[in-house]
Design brief:
single chain, about 160 residues, alpha+beta, 3-stranded antiparallel beta sheet, two-stranded antiparallel ribbon, about 15% strand, NifX-assoc_nitrogen_fix
Length: about 160
């Protein structure tokens, strides 16, 4: 049975760690998390409806959302101490609709339909980003704990 650790650290810290890991040229070295995660926060912290309506699902948006869910998977891996790797599968169409699934070899940890992606993954501040990330991690942990109790019933 998996050991679930007490939650330490924050989702924003994990996301910043993953963004730094993709920085092959060291441009982000020494920058605070808030600067690194500026792509997730609306400019000026306010909603500009007309500007948001013009947003498209570009490769940068896809990468930003995929990295968000990779941070969720990474937090879950750290909290569930059983050596399982949690993978992220995501598909988005050009209009911003799609599906994301976090899974291990035998279990779907999280699954969600995505819509209006360019706007839904822009936050007013980092606290909103933290809240969404932590809520998904919490739900994934609850699902993991419930299913690990019945995992011994599965054929091996």
């Amino acid at each position: 049975m998996a050991v679930v650790r007490e939650q330490r650290g924050s989702f924003v810290t994990e996301l910043a760690r993953l963004v730094r890991a993709r920085d092959t040229y060291g441009v982000l070295d020494g920058k605070p998390d808030a600067d690194i995660l500026q792509d997730y926060v609306r400019k000026g912290g306010k909603r500009d409806l007309m500007a948001e309506l013009a947003l498209e699902t570009t490769d940068a948006v896809r990468q930003r959302v995929h990295l968000f869910y990779e941070a969720v998977a990474s937090r879950l891996e750290r909290l569930i101490e059983n050596g399982q790797v949690i993978n992220v599968a995501m598909e988005l169409d050009p209009e911003g609709f799609g599906q994301v699934v976090l899974y291990t070899d035998w279990f779907v940890v999280w699954s969600e339909g995505l819509r209006d992606v360019p706007r839904r993954y822009l936050f007013d501040n980092l606290d909103q980003l933290e809240a969404l990330g932590q809520s998904i991690v919490k739900e994934g942990l609850a699902r993991w704990e419930t299913c690990s109790k019945i995992a011994h019933l599965l054929p091996s």
